[in-house]
Every structure is written in structure tokens, then in C-alpha cells.
Amino acid sequence: MDGIIVKKDLNLLKKQDYITFKNAKEYGISKYKFYKYVIDNNLEKIDRGVYSKKDSFIDELYLIHERCPQAVFSHDEAFYFHNLSDREPVSHTFTIYSGYNSHRLKEKRNYKIYNIKKELLDLGKIYVKDNSGNEIPVYNLERTICDLVRSRNSIEIQEFTSVLQNYVKRKDKNLNLLMEYAKLFKIDNIIRNYMDVLL
Q1: Nearest-angstrom CA–CA distance, 56 and 132
Q2: pLDDT tens digits, one per residue of 113-160
Q3: How far is CA 32 from the centre of its chain?
Q4: Which residue pairs from 97-105 have beta carbons closer than 8 angstroms and sit at least 24 positions apart in sequence?
Q5: What is the CA 24 to chain-centroid distance, rounded?
Q6: Strand locations in the chain, DSSP E?
């Protein structure tokens, strides 16, 4: 393998602690050269088309984002990120549009995946830096509360109440935006009732 290809691949490893066939393709590296590099450097397979040095730290959130750029981290992941819950998610949780084939994402992974109409997928989506400094998409506070209420039947009552109470205490909450989103999800009456009790 020529030196340029090795250098490019090493730069990928330095930046992310792993290389992907998708990234290699973007650099114009052939499948044969990519897998030869993997074998020559004794890299381990950590996911489909993703390889890393042994014992490297892998930023799983960024890896999910790379594998499925349309997905937005939500629910448990968003509760934790926005400090609405101190419970670290047991499994990575994200939302993708209805009809997306999430079968490959679920392979060998304990992901929690929610579905939504395509036109509502990006509503309230923001980009933030994760603990490794990589930018990932997550829903903002108000969209997160809408997701909480929409999924209330599958969330423990204690966690549901705690997340709502923590939101109400926030100085940066935007109740007008919350109601605007709630109308789009047709849960505005439900959310209004909760807010009337808690505020």
C-alpha cells in the first residue's frame, strides 16, 4: 500500500480511534487496500465496516451518527444530556423516521429506537458536542418534553414525573415553543394539563 493511503488512514485513526470503510471510500481508497490495511495493522472489527486498534476508546454516539446520519438522539439520551435525569441511559436511544430500515442498526446492539413521521424528524434538532468533543444531533429541551409525553406509557412513572419537574424548574425553558411543538404532535391539551399542575 502506498504511503499516502497509510498516512490518510492513520490520520483517521488519530482523529477518531477507528477507521471505517465509508471514510476510506471518501478518500478514494479501494476495498482491497482498506482491508489489507486492516490486516497489516492488526485492527479489530468493532462494527460492520468499522475497525480500530485494540483497547481503543470508541465514541459510540458519534459512531451511531456516522452510521445513520438521519438519526437524532432522543428520550433517555436527551433526558440525560439536558440534565433532566441523572440516570445514564442503559442503551443508546434515538429517533429515526418511519419506514427506515433499522434492522442493521439493531444487529448485535442494544439500541432503543423510536420512529416518527419523516416531516417531524428534524423538529427541535440541535447539534451538541458529546463527551469526546464530537458533534452529534440531539433534540432540544422542548422537543424532549414532547417525546416524554408522547411515550409516557412506556416510561416509568417516577422517571416521567422527575423529568417533567426538572423541566419546569429550568430557567431556560420555553413554554411557548413547547406548546407550538405540542400542537404539531397533537398533545397540546395533555401538556397544558401537566403544566397547569406543575407551574
Answers
A1: 13
A2: 999 999 999 999 999 998 878 899 999 999 999 999 999 999 999 999
A3: 31
A4: 97/70, 97/121, 100/68, 100/70, 102/68, 104/48, 105/64, 105/67, 105/68, 105/71
A5: 23
A6: 18-20, 44-47, 50-52, 72-73, 93-97, 112-116, 125-129, 135-139
